[in-house]
Design brief:
The mean pLDDT is about 85. The chain has one domain. The chain contains 3 helices and no strands. By secondary structure, the protein is mainly α.
Length: about 70
């Protein structure tokens, strides 16, 4: 049978592991968010930074251009 000390230590280490894993996942997702935001914005907005939302005009025109480009 487990004592409460071992159970508490195991639970706190599990919580710490989940917190670290969650932070790592967020850090890992930031570049993907940037690429996605750049893909749905016009070039003029991308050049000002994907994190700026003053003028946010999402469009799928970039995807249509990629599919219809002769080199695609």
């Amino acid at each position: 049978m487990r004592s409460m000390g071992v159970f508490a230590r195991t639970r706190s280490s599990t919580i710490a592991l989940y917190v670290v894993a969650g932070l790592a996942a967020l850090i890992w997702l930031i570049p993907f968010l940037g690429v996605f935001m750049a893909s749905i914005r016009p070039l003029s907005e991308v050049l000002r930074g994907w994190w700026r939302f003053e003028q946010f005009n999402p469009t799928l025109r970039n995807y249509a251009g990629a599919w219809n480009h002769p080199a695609a």
